[in-house]
Design goal:
430 residues; Aspartate Aminotransferase, domain 2; 7-stranded mixed β-sheet; 4-stranded antiparallel β-sheet; 13% strand; disordered C terminus
Length: 430
């Protein structure tokens, strides 16, 4: 037993040290601030608080009620909405809550296809399949990497899905919700926005404003462009009490029991930090993504949507067929310390062997990198994939770049100490 514990601890240290040296470009990952991270190992981790503040099924929750009320108030203020629920424990659980609240088995539900960037929640093997709803696929404009509005309008009028999901996992540009709003109203559909990837950009006043553009419900995870804990959230600005009641009942007892109080407390800190720093952070994230896209494009990479500036978000899509395909390229990059992921692109049929990779700038921006460093990252990738640089040389270049960026930014504790990947207080474990 002791040997197993030591193996797990050692593997955890190796993992943390890997990311300490690496250039992290996963679009769906970010770093917690010290104050938020502190709460994840508090006594809250060991407790239950089923229900809502003031309406618990367990005693001893007076402070939990205060924390949850603060978290809800911060969420409503940050997203300028009437309703928030912070009990879903992940973005997918938040999506399940929406489906439980608003969809019935066999119901047609509008969504994008996986190859066009949709999240696995909308797949038959994901949350859609679990709820047994039937996807109605929108038309797609591959050049603009967004919905084809006229063709999608025709599909919606023909299929008349009562629930329409907008939101992507490969999320380069805002979706045309405002343009489709009249069609949603005409067919009586509820607009639902999965903001998991772009939640922090929305909160920072960039990208788009789905709750004002035509979506009644927003679901999200809270650890991507919003640099919080791995958790979930539901938001709405609807004045329909029956909608709010359905969402609350779906969150609990529908898809959660206890809602991970330590993560909720960390989320409250992260929301407060984003109110203070989110606008500047969001602007820097997008500027870095566009700078990285331009630098890669200039070095011969097939970055999608060059005529549109490559992205309006934190994410880039790069077709790497010439370089060996998404699976091989992502592996080669990871071996030299540049962490990305293979990703489906329009026209792909195999998620295991896609044409593309996905790159994101939330974490490197959080550590203080800017457009100059994005150019350097592109140079390192070019050396590996186009100019046959040795793995040792490329790895050394990546590690040298990362060593200059170890201080967390855009948080209340910024600048107090170098950010350490392996623990809370900046000292390696024994």
């Amino acid at each position: 037993m002791a040997a197993a514990v030591e193996r797990v601890r050692a593997a955890t240290r190796r993992h943390s040290e890997r990311f300490e040296r690496a250039i992290p470009l996963i679009a769906s990952e970010n770093l917690l601030s010290p104050y938020a991270k502190e709460l994840l190992i508090s006594d809250l981790h060991s407790r239950y608080a089923e229900g809502l503040p003031g309406e618990r099924y367990y005693e001893g929750n007076e402070e939990v009620d205060l924390i949850e009320r603060e978290c809800l108030e911060l969420a409503r203020a940050l997203f300028r909405c009437r309703f928030a629920d912070v009990r879903p424990i992940s973005g997918t659980v938040a999506n399940l809550a929406v489906l439980k609240a608003l969809a019935e088995a066999g119901m047609p539900v509008g969504t994008a296809r996986l190859a066009n960037g949709a999240h696995i929640s909308s797949a038959g093997f994901g949350a859609f399949g679990l709820r047994s709803v039937r996807p109605v696929y929108y038309a797609w404009d591959e050049e603009r990497m967004t919905l084809d509005v006229p063709a999608t309008r025709r599909i919606l009028k023909e299929q008349r899905p009562p629930l329409c999901l907008f939101g992507l996992s490969l999320f380069l540009f805002p979706l045309p919700i405002a343009e489709l709003r009249d069609t949603l109203e005409e067919i009586g559909a509820v607009g639902w926005y999965d903001a998991a990837h772009v939640l922090g950009l929305i909160a920072g006043g960039l990208f788009q404003d789905p709750l004002r553009e035509g979506c009644a419900v927003l679901s999200a995870s809270t650890h991507k462009t919003l640099p919080g804990p791995q958790h979930g959230i539901l938001l709405s600005d609807s004045d329909r009490p029956e909608l709010v009641g359905k969402l609350q009942g779906a969150a609990f007892p529908g898809v959660t029991s206890n809602h991970h109080l330590h993560a909720m407390a960390a989320l409250a800190v992260s929301l407060a930090e984003h109110r203070a720093f989110g606008h500047d952070y969001a602007r820097a994230v997008v500027a870095n993504a566009r700078a990285l896209g331009q630098a890669l494009y200039e070095r011969g990479f097939d970055v999608l949507a060059p005529d549109l500036g490559f992205t309006a978000s934190h994410t880039l899509a790069v077709r790497v067929t010439r370089e060996g395909g998404g699976e091989a390229v992502a592996r080669r990059l990871a071996e030299v310390g540049i962490v990305s992921n293979k990703n489906l692109l329009p026209g792909d049929t195999s998620p295991k062997h896609p044409q593309g990779i996905r790159l994101g700038t939330p974490e490197v921006t959080r550590l203080g990198m800017g457009p100059k460093e994005m150019v350097r990252i592109a140079e390192i990738m070019d050396l590996l994939l186009h100019r046959e640089g040795t793995a040792d040389r490329v790895r050394a270049d990546a590690e040298a770049l990362k060593r200059g960026f170890t201080t967390l930014r855009y948080c209340f504790a910024a600048g107090e100490a170098a950010y350490r990947y392996y623990d809370l207080v900046g000292h390696p474990p024994p």
